[in-house]
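To the wet lab folks,

You asked to see what we're planning to order before we commit. Fair enough. Below is the target structure as tokens, and below that is the sequence we designed to fit it. If anything looks off to you, flag it before the synthesis order goes out.
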């Protein structure tokens, strides 16, 4: 049961199915809130057990316990909404999938205080955003680099955010990319139809000398496992259109792995030469082409396909003509 007032709402629950389980774990299984969020609420004094205040997240509950958890009203987000046009591939009351353009930063950061995807979503969704972590803001499920284009999903509520993040962690959500690289990658398995495919399994961490870059770093030195599956889509002389599928989602993963293979993404000045190819690119020729996920509420499959941006398509046509 829930009671609502201007200060938020109270969830009232009766424990009827457990003995000696930690309160934070039990609540996370019976509320549409993350365990971390519940722990913070308990520490802030938002929980009462049998009408007695409780701020200990490790206390255990027993059958017959009556719980009251007060959820404060969401705070307004400090960032201002900006009426920036969005290319929306899918939307409902729970989430939206956008086709992010090149040059757009996902979240405000030093040097990019405005004009971000978050600013645009705040303006587009308005009161549909019910709050993430107690703040009225969109739930960023995953990110794309500033100059990487393509499909990206954003949650409108906290439960949807956690459900989508869980899909990515469990690898049930699929993210597929197209990239144009220098040279022709040598496949692990040949395929007469396309030229073959391969996999890169190399841990990625912060570059030891340049903190703005990522690099292949051994796990014992702080790297995290990173796996990229790739397949040749089209050979274009001394260039190749490559299809990528992410098994993990590390920062700059495709760009780092492609450079490690000796075939950096065209236009990538950070991990490649950034050489001119006759088309003025805004960064790397890397596009999040397809996003496949399961709707957390309906259970239906959502497949969002982002059209290849004009400048990347122009580059492909020029390379084919050569």
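Sequence we intend to order:
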């Amino acid at each position: 049961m829930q009671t609502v007032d201007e200060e938020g709402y109270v969830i009232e629950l009766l424990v009827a199915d457990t003995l000696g389980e930690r309160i934070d774990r039990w609540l996370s299984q019976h509320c549409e809130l993350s365990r971390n969020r519940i722990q913070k609420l308990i520490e802030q004094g938002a929980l009462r057990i049998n009408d007695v205040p409780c701020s200990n997240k490790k206390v255990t509950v027993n059958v017959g316990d009556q719980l009251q958890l007060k959820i404060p009203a969401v705070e307004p987000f400090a960032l201002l909404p900006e009426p920036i046009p969005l290319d929306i591939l899918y939307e409902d009351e729970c989430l939206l999938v956008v086709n992010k353009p090149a040059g757009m930063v996902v979240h405000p950061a030093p040097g990019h205080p405005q004009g971000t995807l978050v600013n645009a979503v705040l303006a587009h969704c308005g009161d549909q955003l019910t709050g993430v972590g107690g703040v009225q803001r969109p739930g960023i499920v995953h990110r794309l680099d500033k100059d990487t284009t393509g499909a990206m999903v954003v949650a409108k509520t906290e439960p949807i955010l956690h459900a989508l993040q869980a899909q990515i962690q469990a690898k049930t959500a699929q993210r597929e990319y197209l990239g144009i690289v220098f040279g022709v990658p040598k496949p692990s398995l040949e395929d007469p139809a396309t030229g073959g495919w391969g996999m890169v399994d190399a841990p990625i961490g912060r570059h030891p000398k340049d903190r703005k870059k990522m690099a292949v770093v051994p796990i014992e030195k702080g790297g995290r496992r990173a796996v990229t599956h790739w397949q040749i889509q089209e050979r274009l002389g001394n260039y190749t259109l490559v299809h990528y599928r992410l098994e993990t989602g590390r920062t700059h993963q495709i760009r780092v792995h492609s450079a490690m293979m000796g075939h950096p993404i065209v236009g990538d000045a950070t991990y490649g030469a950034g050489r001119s190819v006759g088309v003025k690119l805004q960064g790397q020729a890397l596009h999040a082409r397809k996003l496949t996920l399961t709707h957390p509420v309906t259970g239906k499959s959502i497949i969002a396909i982002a059209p290849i941006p004009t400048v990347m398509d122009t580059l492909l046509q020029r390379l084919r003509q050569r």
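Structural context that might help your review: The longest helix spans residues 158-170. The CA atoms of residues 10 and 178 lie 47 Å apart.

Thanks,
Computational group
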